[in-house]
Amino acid sequence: MSFRSGPSPLLKIIAALALVLLAGPASAHLDESLTGGFLAGFHHPLSGPDHLLAMVAVGIWGAFLGRPLVVLLPVIFPTVMAFGGALGMAGVPMPPVEIGIALSVLLLGGAIAFAWRAPVWIAVTLVAIFAIFHGYAHGAELPSIADPIAFSLGFVLATGLLHVAGILLGLLNDRPGGEIATRVVGGLIAATGVYFLYRAIP
C-alpha cells in the first residue's frame, strides 16, 4: 500500500468519531418538556461518551470480524441490554456498573486496536456481558422516566444507529490504509476507556 493512501481513511474515521462525540454536548439544550419521551430516549445514548464509544466500537469490531458477527453483535447488544435494563429496574444487585461500562470501552477498543479475531462464542459472550452493564445503568433510571416505553424506543433506535455508524467506519478496513486507521481509532477508544476506568474506581 502506498503511504499517500493511508491518511485518507484515518482522517475520515477520526472526523466521524469527533462528530459523534460532539453530539452529546451539542444536544444538551433539549426542551425540558421532552424529558422522558422518545426524543429524550434517542438523545440519551448520545449524551454519554462512555456509552456512545462502546456502541460504536461494537459496530467497528463486528465489521472487522465479518460474518456472522457483523450482524450478530449489533443484534445481541441491544437485546441483552434490554435484559440488563430489566435488572436495573428491579434493583437486582450488580458489581460496580460504572467499572463494567469503562471496561467495555477499554476492552472493545483494545480488541479493535490489536485486530483480535475472537472466536464467535467469545465475541458474543463479551458483548453480551458488556450490554448487561450498559442496560443496567439505563434501566435503573427508567422508573423515574415519565414515559418509559417511548424513552426505551428512542434509546434502542439511537443504539442501533450507533452500531450502524460503527459498522460503516469498520468497513473502511477493506480500503488501502483502512485497517491501520481503524486500529488507531481502536487505540484511541481504549485509551479513553482507561480514563473512564480511572474515574470509575473509588
UniProtKB/TrEMBL annotation:
InterPro entries per the UniProt record, alphabetical: HupE_UreJ
Transmembrane is among the record's keywords: yes
Superkingdom assignment: Bacteria
Pfam hit, one: HupE_UreJ
Coiled-coil residues: none
Residues of the signal peptide: 1-28
Keywords on record: Membrane, Signal, Transmembrane, Transmembrane helix
TM stretches of this protein: 52-77, 97-114, 120-137, 149-168, 180-198
The protein's name in its UniProt record: HupE/UreJ family protein
Organism: Sphingomonas naphthae
UniProt lineage: Bacteria, Pseudomonadati, Pseudomonadota, Alphaproteobacteria, Sphingomonadales
